[in-house]
Amino acid sequence: MDIQTIISLDRTKCAVQCNSKKRILEIISRTAAEQNSSIEEDEVLNSLLSREKMGSTGIGNGIALPHGRLPGLEKVIAIVVTSEPPIDFDAIDNKPVDIFFALLVPEEQTDGHLQTLAMVASKLNDKETVKAIRNATSSDDILTALA
């Protein structure tokens, strides 16, 4: 799977003002619901919060990969948000997070979910990509960095 198939400009937000883990997950959930009529904002938020209760999806280096499964979703979608300032997200390195790459996957898709997470983590492991995302001043810049 190519990362370009799961990201889009209308599900990308740059330099969002935010100050808490719950608030950033609410922003992600609202963005997903606004761009897909088959998705309910509360359902997305509950899925993301349930996953966070099992352990933070903050993978370190200021990056988090919140993710959840949704019934009725037909394909994997991503919501990419950067925050200003970085927020406490209980990341594994205890550093604040400013890059959030959220994945929503069809409920029945288990193997595909793990492969997609691995692909995104690999992309975000590239220092130049991360630097470009952090230097982004628009959603277009974020998409260009991920291309």
TrEMBL record:
Gene3D superfamilies on file: Mannitol-specific EII, Chain A
Entries under InterPro entries matching the protein: PTrfase/Anion_transptr, PTS_EIIA_type-2_dom, PTS_Nitro_regul, PTS_SugarTrans_NitroReg
Residues of the PTS EIIA type-2 domain: 5-147
Protein name: PTS IIA-like nitrogen regulatory protein PtsN
